[in-house]
Each structure stands twice: as structure tokens, then as C-alpha cells.
Amino acid sequence: MATLPSLFFSIPILLSGSHEVIVKNIYLANDDLSRRQRVSLSYQAALTWHRNLHGLTRISWVTWIITISTITLWCFTAYQVALAIGAHSLHDILMNVLSNAINIQDKDNDALTSVLTTYGAKDNSLIMAGQYWRFVTPIFLHANLLHVGLNMLNFFVLGIIIERLVGHLRYLLIYLVTGVVSIIASFHFAPQEVSVGASGAIFGLVGAYSLFILAHRRAFPRGGIPALTWLVLVIGVNLSIGLFIANVDNYAHVGGLLCGCLLGWWFTPRYVLSPGKQLIDAHSLSRRWPLALLTITGTLVLAIIALHITGG
Fold it and tell me: In this structure, how many other beta carbons lie within 10 angstroms of the beta carbon of residue 134?
């Protein structure tokens, strides 16, 4: 990662004195060096703004709550599946969970599908019957230990970083909207599948983070080409897995990814110099709340269109 000279590395959001003059000159100039420095200032401000927070606001509590809640819900549904197939002792329940940890056993598949459907899996027939909350609940459900383990590991590592970048509410907006859009994509393109999982929303976070890197590519060595290439490789490898492994809903992944890229363009941080000589985030929710409302409204409209088209 490229850094600015030491003078710029730890500039606070509120500027004063000689720093104010230097930064003002950077934003007034229009040469290539000044443009790179502006991007680097924005990048550094986005990475470090959370250090000025205090108490609970400094903790990535949205990531923690979603992770703990999702794992807890999986434990509950795994317990219900074990009961449904006749396990009653703690030993039998644990053995059932472990036997399905990597691959779902054929004999347990019906019980798993029944339990997950009961608690909110994406099922087109039930959604079209009026259970519209199933556009949201599948994000928090998982099939087995491997499924929830990999998803929550990826979510937690990526979520801590992105929540620190964008703040709690923007992060929650991006996660939920991309998750819902991923379910809408699965609803339309894979109507026969009963599906669950947070991977569509996680792809959404990857898309949003990719757009943040793209917007700040001048802050990286060689114009950010290596960093962007690595992101494209990671996305490509993860999407290609769905081509070779059964029961992977790539429609949800692609839907979440594309939605995340769009929301990343709209809502990931971009710091500029205000008339009051402060570095402000031009993409903060306090400045882009009309766009946030439009995003939520657009998601609802997209769900209605999918219902109309898929439902005939």
C-alpha cells in the first residue's frame, strides 16, 4: 500500500495551521501529483476515522451481533433437525451435527429442508403465497457446520474491516440490501431451489469493498492494478466454485456482488475538503440519506417486479 509522506500520514480529520495550508493547496491544484495526494488523503482518512470514536461506537458491533446471532440460529436449527430425525440424547444430537458437518446425508436431507423451510428458507411457492419476509430471513440461515463456519469466518474478517471503513449504519444498509437482492436474484433465476445462506450478502460486501479500492486505486502501488487484480481473482475463484460443487446458488452470489458494487460506488467513503477546512466524507449517510431511501425503495420495487415476473 502506498502512503503519503509522513506529513500527511496522520493528518486528523480536523485540520489546522500548516497542515491546513498544505492540504488546501493539494485540493486547489489540478496536477497529477495533487490528484494522487487527494486520493491518498481520502484513503488514509477512511482507514483511520474510527480511531476518533469512543466506547461502543469504536467496536464493530454490527458484525459481532450478526455473527453471534447467525451462529446461534444455526445451532437452534441444527438441534431441530436432529430432533426431527429421532435424536434425543446430547450424544445423538452431536453425532448428527457432526455427520452432516461437511456433506448433508441423504437420509437427513428431507428433515433439514423441512426445518429450514419452517424457519425462513427461500421457497418460491411460499413467497408467492404471501410470505415476503422470506426475502430477508434466508440470509441468517445455514445448512450445516461447514456452511455456517466458512460464511461467518469470511463475514467476520471482512465485516470488521468494512464496518470500520463505512460506519455502523452504512455497513448494515449494504449488508441487508445486498443480501435481499441476492435472494431476489435466486428467487427469479433459481425458482425451483430452496436456499439459505449469507454468501450473497458477503459477496455484496466484497463488491462494495472492491469499489472502495477502485475509487482509491491511486493510493496503491502501480495505480492499484495488483490490488484490483487480486480482488478479481478472489471473486472469480469463489464464483467458479459454484460451477463445480452442487447446491451452490451462484445466482445469489452474482446478484449480491453486482448490488454491492453499485452500493460501494454510492456509499463507500470519499473524503473531500470542506469550506470549514475539515476533511468530510461526501458519501456519509447524513449527506446521502435521500439516496439511501431511494436504495431501499428500489429494492422493494425490484422484489415486486420479481414477484410479478416469476409468479406469472
Answer: 20
Q: In the annotation, is 253 catalytic? A: yes
Between 250-267 and 285-310, two packed helices, what is the crossing angle to 10 degrees? 150
Which of these is catalytic: 142, 147, 188, 253? 253
pLDDT tens readout for residues 82-139: 999 999 899 999 999 999 998 888 888 999 999 999 999 999 999 999 999 999 999 9
Q: For the chain, what are the domain ranges?
A: 16-310
147 is catalytic: no
Q: What is the DSSP letter of 129?
A: T
C-alpha span between 230 and 217 (Å, rounded): 13
C-beta of residue 163 within 8 angstroms of C-beta of residue 170: no
Q: Which residues does 72 contact at the CB level (< 8 Å), separation at least 6? A: none
Evaluate if residue 276 carries a pLDDT over 90: no
Catalytic site residue from 182, 199, 216, 283: 199
∠ CA(111), CA(112), CA(117), 5° rounding? 100
Average predicted confidence (pLDDT) for the chain: 87
CA distance linking residue 36 with residue 27, whole number of Å: 11
Buried b (16+ CB within 10 A) or exposed e, 100-120: beeebeeebeebbbebbbebb
- For the chain, state the CA radius of gyration: 22
Residue 272 β-bridge partners: 280
Own/partner long-range contacts of 148-153 (Cβ < 8 Å, ≥24 apart): 148/70, 148/71, 148/74, 151/70, 151/197, 151/198, 151/199, 151/202, 152/67, 152/70, 152/71, 152/198
Q: pLDDT band for 55, please (50, 70, 90 cuts).
A: confident
Q: Which CATH number fits the domain 16-310, given the four candidates 3.30.70.360, 3.40.50.2000, 1.20.1540.10, 1.10.3430.10?
A: 1.20.1540.10
pTM as predicted: 0.87
16 secondary structure, DSSP code: -
What is the rounded distance in angstroms from the CA atom of residue 41 to the CA atom of residue 213?
14
